[in-house]
Design goal:
Elements: E1 18-20, E2 23-26, E3 29-32, E4 43-44, E5 54-59, E6 66-70, E7 75-78, E8 86-88, E9 96-101, E10 107-111, E11 116-119, E12 127-129, E13 137-143, E14 146-154, E15 159-162, E16 170-171, E17 180-185, E18 191-195, E19 200-203, E20 211-212, E21 223-226, E22 232-235
Length: 236
């Protein structure tokens, strides 16, 4: 429920292990391989520049500029494909769980208690965006065919949406009270969201209506992504 005072604990968290392009994230640090060649193998970077658990990592299309986010509001930035990371500071200490990178200048992060942070200058400044929920947010996605339209999902079936690139957010009608961990859209109309107890929701009208599909077992689904216009892959 919006505004629910659920304790923010690890049982609500999806696995803090993700692999995007050529970078793997481990709880407690970041390990990277060369974004252009594999000659250098793995390079361990923990605890530099910090030691907080990392929840998400995303890169711009150039595969050089990217961010990683995690516990206590940590935001790390790289401009060389992940070999050197610097901390970027915000005024928020809310744990950050999800991340979306539009390009090398624009990115959004979501997290505890309805937190949405946005940057438009490569992370030199992160702005906290007001949202209509206090539920914890775990996943965020934008429509490939309309970068102004995006969605974020979280606890107790919370789904919020934006039509202006993340500047403002509105609640969408809930069709489930399950915690949702990930969301993906293939276009501005078609999307899926997944969560605890095998929950899978689908929309074909931009989120005005979310329909629960047949549950895929009882284990949590922690991530989902479209790989074609008609096929999505969920893992958990």
């Amino acid at each position: 429920m919006s505004g629910h005072s659920a304790k923010y604990s690890s049982r609500f968290l999806p696995a803090a292990l993700a692999a995007i392009t050529f970078v793997s994230v481990f709880a407690g640090g970041v390990a990277a391989i060369d974004a252009q060649t594999f000659d250098r193998g793995w390079e361990w970077q923990n605890p530099l520049p910090q030691g907080n658990a990392i929840s998400a990592i995303r890169f711009a299309k150039d595969q050089r500029h990217g961010w990683a986010v995690g516990a206590d509001g940590v935001i790390l930035y790289t401009a060389d494909g992940g070999f050197r990371w610097t901390a970027q500071h915000t005024h928020s200490i809310a744990g950050l769980n999800g991340l979306h990178v539009l390009d090398r200048l624009h990115a959004l992060a979501v997290g505890a208690r309805g937190t949405v942070l946005k940057t438009a200058n490569g992370g030199q400044r992160w702005i906290k965006i007001q949202t209509p929920t206090k539920d914890h947010l775990y996943g965020i996605s934008f429509a490939p065919d309309d970068p102004q339209r995006g969605w974020a999902v979280g606890t107790y079936g919370c789904i919020i949406a934006t039509t202006d690139g993340g500047a403002t957010w509105t609640l969408q009608k809930r069709s489930s009270d399950a915690h949702l961990y990930s969301v993906s859209f293939i276009d501005k109309q078609t999307g899926v969201a997944v969560g605890e107890r095998g929950t899978l929701l689908r929309t074909s009208d931009g989120g005005q209506n979310w329909l629960e599909q047949v549950r895929l077992g009882t284990q949590p689904l922690t991530s989902v992504v479209f790989i074609t216009t008609k096929r999505a892959v969920a893992v958990g």
